[in-house]
TrEMBL record:
Spans through the membrane: none
Protein name: Putative RNA-directed DNA polymerase from transposon BS
Alphabetical UniProt keywords: Nucleotidyltransferase, RNA-directed DNA polymerase, Transferase
PROSITE patterns: RT_POL
Domain of life: Eukaryota
Positions in coiled-coil regions: none
Any Pfam family hit: RVT_1
Keyword Transmembrane helix: no
Keyword Transferase included in the entry's annotation: yes
One GO MF term attached to the UniProt entry: RNA-directed DNA polymerase activity
Gene3D superfamilies found in the cross-reference section: 3.30.70.270
Length: 477
């Protein structure tokens, strides 16, 4: 999302923009264990943590199994083990200081061993110079920490709104990095003209291959039923079509048509419908909606959540990607799908002022005055019958919380909207509130607790007990 947003900003400012994807050769196998420990100490991970990392990377023994026989064990003193859940974390520690050598004017994005550089400037010559200097600095850094860049697996893409390829080369160790018409960033192919055609072609081909595999599960008179097939289609095919919807929803209808044809074939297959079945009938039979509409809904949900975040938590909150302000009219029309979510807010009569602001999470358990109980009290057992639970609750309250003020919260969602309530049982006071239907019950349960704290907990010298039936909210707190 940040990658796409950076491209949009540069193109809206009519700047030349070039992006480079750098590949580290045998990244995990080339990690220097002592370097990981050194950098762990730099970020404050000392003592037992640093000692454990050193022991984990230097004293592990390996064996090779071949034809049912094991080789002699040997010790590996280089690299981090592949397939281990902690290896990406250790590799991230190893690369954490790479950002310090990136010069101003160049944006560096790193995800594990994927390094992406974006450089934009009104002058193409300045872009070339900055990008080449940055790559040289990264190359020197890699040599210092015993890593090596592979120019043959790296790519450079010109994302400016010009069709010709720049007449210069970017090199790594005197080897030219090949120019490409697209770049793969975290599973999404970004075409040079930002049309996403390459990505949709790749996903459509992959989805059709999976559909061919699923056809082996059913015949004309035998096989899985429609419910199971629908779940398989959604899990195996629809999921890859929706991946990256926050970005791909900006593509045009022509590009989305490629995936929608595949989606229609999947729905006809799992419902056993003939090819001539009208699309509205097919959607009615399966209970599904258009793939692009669903992806747009996912994109809207993503952007709404970011508008509830503070700027330091959301790098795209005030970006052109959210509002499309400042873009040329022709470019704004190309990405007109981005304004659909603003129309959605207008149609649902929701203002930006209605967003619940994100509150920085506080470690409540460290406060001596706050305790959160989720399953450690006698009555917090779901398998106990309700009458017995009520007796256990009353007994515990009378014994342990006799002098405390008891508060309860609840929330529900119906056809009319989302409602919440907070009840001060001790003083018999009740507060009710309705939220917009787009909110979930989880959000309403959290708001109910927030309102109860703000309205009912006012005297610091008293003890309060706040009861909620939302285990997910309590665990989140």
């Amino acid at each position: 999302m940040v990658f796409f947003n950076t491209l949009l900003k540069a193109r809206s400012n009519k700047e030349d923009i070039i992006a480079a994807s750098l590949d580290i050769s045998s990244a995990y196998d080339s990690v220097w264990p002592d370097g990981v420990v050194y950098k762990a100490l730099q970020i404050g991970r000392s003592g037992h943590t640093a000692r454990w990392i050193h022991e984990f990377l230097t004293n592990s023994t390996l064996q090779v199994r071949w034809s049912g026989k094991l080789s002699a064990s040997f010790t590996s003193n280089r690299g981090v083990p592949k397939g281990c859940c902690i290896s990406p974390f250790l590799f991230t520690i190893y690369l954490h200081d790479l950002f310090e050598i990136i010069p101003p004017g160049v944006i560096c994005l790193i995800y594990v061993d994927d390094i992406f550089l974006i450089c934009s400037n009104p002058s193409l010559q300045n872009v070339k110079t900055k990008l080449q200097i940055t790559i040289q600095k990264i190359q020197i850094w890699c040599q210092t920490w015993k890593l090596k860049l592979d120019p043959t697996k790296s790519t450079v893409v010109n994302f400016y709104n010009k069709r010709q390829t720049p007449n210069f080369q970017i090199s790594v160790d005197n080897v030219y990095i090949p120019w490409s018409s697209n770049m793969k960033v975290l599973g999404i192919f970004f075409s040079a003209n930002l049309s996403f055609n390459c990505h949709f072609n790749y996903v459509a081909k992959k989805a059709l291959k999976r559909l061919g595999h699923l056809r082996a599960l059913v015949g004309s008179n035998w096989g899985a039923n429609i419910v199971h097939l629908l779940r398989l289609v959604n899990a195996c095919i629809r999921s890859i079509c929706e991946f990256g919807a926050q970005v791909t929803s900006y593509a045009g209808s022509t590009s989305w048509r490629k995936l929608e044809v595949v989606h229609h074939n999947c729905l006809r297959f799992e419902a056993g419908l003939p090819r001539w079945t009208p699309i509205p009938v097919m959607f009615a039979e399966t209970g599904e909606i258009r793939l692009r509409d669903r992806s747009l809904a996912l994109s809207i949900s993503f952007l709404l959540r970011h508008f509830a975040l503070e700027d330091k938590f959301s790098p795209i909150k005030k970006s052109n990607l959210c509002t499309l302000d400042g873009l040329r009219p022709s470019f704004k029309e190309q990405f007109s799908g981005g304004t659909n979510w603003l129309k959605f807010l207008k149609d649902t009569n929701v203002s930006i002022k209605n967003f619940i602001p994100f509150v920085y999470p506080v470690e409540l358990q460290k406060e001596n005055t706050i305790r959160i109980h989720t399953n450690d009290l006698p009555f917090q057992q779901s398998q106990i019958p309700s009458p017995t639970l009520c007796k256990l609750f009353d007994k515990y309250v009378n014994k342990e919380w006799n002098s405390s003020i008891l508060i309860a919260t609840d929330a529900s969602k119906g056809e009319e909207g989302v409602s919440l309530a907070a009840l001060n049982i001790t003083y018999n006071r009740t507060l009710t509130l309705k939220l917009h239907p787009m909110n979930s019950v989880f959000t309403a349960e959290g708001c109910a607790i927030l309102i109860a704290i703000e309205r009912f907990i006012q005297e610091e010298d008293k003890s309060y007990i706040l009861c909620s039936d939302s285990l997910s909210v309590l665990k989140s707190l």
